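We modelled the chain as a single entity of 341 amino acids. Its sequence is:
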Amino acid sequence: MAAFAHEEPDRVPIWCGSSAEFWAKAKAELGLDDEHLRLRLGDDFRRVFAVYAGPEVPLSPGAVSRTPFGIERAGMGYGQPINHPLADAGLDEVRAYGWPDPAWTDVSTVRAQAEPHVGEYAILGGDWSPFWHDVIELFGMERMYYAMYDEPELVDAVMDHVVDYYAESSRRIFDEAVDLIDIFFIGNDLGSQRGPLLGEELFRRFVLPHLARLIDLGHSHGLKVMLHCCGGIAELIPAMVEIGLDGLHAVQPSCTGMDLRALKERFGDRILFNGAIDSHHVLIKGTPELVREKTRETLEIMMPGGGYVAGASHDSILEETPVENVLAMFDTVMEFGRYGG
């Protein structure tokens, strides 16, 4: 929390996000259970989850999962959408659509998940709220982009319904256990390798008001708000700062515009940066020696003045990442990420 206050704590906090596949590999290689692996890596965060408990709907042939908004998915990892329920919809169809009920968010275990970690780790909570992705998948990406110009009221209506659900779902979580939560953690990937997925004008028109709504919800409950956002999003950061976003994760230096020195100089006293140690070229492809070198370089840039949490530039460390490289990264942070000499 000192880092979020842009103060220099005793050391840089550590963040470890992982894919299920890497996590299973690391546990097997190191002979550790979940909590002891977190301890070995030095992770200063713990996350609590509500459970979606809506009606069970049979999946279509080939589908492996279904989102609360009726989008079915198939393929590797999280998969890809195989349907776009609102691809041909107008306003009447949007209003009549079977939107999920936030009461289906089961918060009954949230306190029990948080209580063992209170006072020792920063606790993340709230609904992940990937509203940008949901709207893309409900419409299909091309239809959504065209509608932003041709039928803006249609995009507004779908955004409203989706964010209504997430805001109320998070409110239920906060009503249950906000006294145990430190950070409202949300996620929407707005960038590609080469830059934002939409320009600043469209971002401000369609996305920013809803992002501000979630930030205001977190602040009204006394929480810091951190956004996970992949890709080259430098030109969108000023607007995020304007609406009071407290932290930005995971800061990908291999993407266009994401020069770490420039980001730290422009925004380092106004928003916390979390991540920034290159996953794309260094963690996956490098040697432990290269990982140590690049981790030290990142610390030298991002540490001064606080406002930095050290971690990989992609939250879900992928299975192909060598465990020895991840250990080298976090061990280097523990050795060289200390303030005051």
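As a brief sanity check on the tokenised model: The mean pLDDT is 97. The first helix runs from residue 20 to 30.
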